[in-house]
Amino acid sequence: MAFYECVYMARPDVSPTQVEAITEQITTIVTEFGGSVHSSEYWGLKSLAYRVKKNRKAHYVLLNIDMNNEGKAEMERNMSLNEDVLRVMTLRIEEMPEGPSIQMRAKARGDRPDRGERGDRGDRGDRGGDRGGDRGERRERRDAE
What is the pTM of this model? Predict the structure, then answer.
């Protein structure tokens, strides 16, 4: 048996309870093939970097699974047939991670770090302020003519 980390994205118009039902279907498939799901994390509805099948958001779920290759193939086949699942990525990992994932730890301490008064860009130096450069001189020259 091998360890796998599976992340899938579900359509944004399905409810979180329907996402849990998809996770239960996956768990059933894994156990039928002699595997086990060590942990399951619902990361929530997140914005996508680009559109995926005309969707701008998706529900994310992480599964840490111990199963054989036949079970993995059947799980991925069933997920590809499910219309509510947008994307699936399954990676083989060397050992099962302990504790929550990085996403869940970031959510526990707050979504964003303290950015201060100026925002996340920091000090912009002399680039901020008047963005026109020498445009003011051009306007004056044109008005003088």
Answer: 0.70
